[in-house]
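Narrative summary of target 7.
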Amino acid sequence: MIKTIVPSIGKILVDKGWTMATAESCTGGLVAATLTDFSGSSAWFSGAVVAYSNEIKMSLLHVPETVIMEHGAVSEETVRAMAEGVCKTMGVNVGISLSGIAGPTGGTPDKPVGTVWMGWHVNGETYAEKILFSGDRMDVKQQSLQTVLEKLHKFLKES
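Modeled conformation, tokenized:
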């Protein structure tokens, strides 16, 4: 699926004259690495921020400290701010963000291991979704990668 969806994302972005960037926490740059595995991605992919710490989320992605304090790093409010912030930082039309608990540690009753919030900022509109994935750490990261790109593709086709 990745082999077909990434070139399609790239074509849509090029056709629209848009560029994109990623803001990743739990995936540690996996999305950016996957996008740049494709030749020609420099025409539409500008860069990434791997914001593993809250300090980086706040300083580079403009996530307000109050958002993290009130809602946590793994929340709808945080990924929305991350997606919008990476667009501002990188000067792009499209930003995607991920923050979650890949495990095996770090889960809580409210946010168990496998909880991932994803955000998309597409040409002025911001979307967010929480998904609970299963499996080990790499399974959660791979499922997050697949899902965030599938949904991005859908949003791009609709915009």
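The chain has a mean pLDDT of 97.
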